[in-house]
Target: Aminotransferase
Amino acid sequence: MDLSNRIQGLTGGGSDGWDVFYKARRMIGAGVSVTELTQGEHDIRTDQSILDAMYRSASGGNTGYATVPGTNSMRDAVAARLTARTGVHTTRDNVLVTPGGQSALFASHHAVCDEGDVALYCDPYYATYPGTLRGVGAIPRAVPCLPENAFQPTFSDIAEKSAGAKSLLVNTPNNPTGVVYSRETVEGIARACREYDMWCISDEVYDTQVWDGTHISPRTLDGMAERTLVVGSMSKSHAMTGSRIGWIVAPEDVVENLFNLATHTTYGVPGYIQDAAVFALGEGLALEEKVAEPFRRRRAIGQNILAEQNVVGLVPSEGAMYMMLDVRSTGLSGEDFADKLLDAHHIAVMPGESFGASAAGHVRVAMTVEDSAFEASLKTLVGFAKELQP
Model:
């Protein structure tokens, strides 16, 4: 018997782009010491105070089914957060709680795309984006964002690909590039969505990690609240990656229909996890800044190292927990460079090609190891690139 075409075709019939990551994990499994600068996973764990809140809730009996769209306290906390950060009035009726940001991306596209609809996404992209779109039956269409524009999508970039498109997926602060979209960029996104009558799905899971510039949500611009679905998560902001809790903020009628989808798929998020998230959000900026500080610090370390050489280029590192490095001076693709770096120095980075054609000749470095190891690894990477120059 055959499996469905949809499940077999999630990666488009090719690699999922994580070959170097899998190779590094095999090496680690074989006992080789590898410095992993690949995955967006904090090197600190969830704060003990959050775990204590989770324990209190669970041991107090909150282990049964939670209400499917999310508890009122969690939805209210998310609504208050969005209202305070963006100035756009938001209530619990605009919020659906999901098992993490990835689930929110999947549900959001189910809400706005029918089978065969074209769904746009920006290239470079987070590795799961095209598969997520295929998973809901949409046809993924990339919007190339060029390195000479610091990987920021322009209105003309989007317009060129918008014919017949139903939705546009954007991500700022951006994974993999570390770029924070400028006001001009976000206004171009909004203009394209209005002129070509597209839904905007805005992945904002890194909104607490902004080093330069200002995070601007497309939902805040004129005419966009009624056509924007914002994806958020506790994973990056509060180091709660394993807790799997995120949300969608959208117009009320969209959330009503997403409630029906959640009833038939996830059936909600455990109440004790939601209680822990409510506690964490209630701690405010202090806890978020504590989680973000290691990446801010390592970004400065990386900038200092890269400023002392001219072989490896740095894409503007304005947000998120990554640095995108230009290694085209070596004459190698990002994939070949990453593979050789892993073999020669047991340092694992992600090839730019893992995130789309626009990032060819680049590598993404996750700032997710302690400071001294990060500094040593980046210096080794730069030295290796010098050796490889033709």
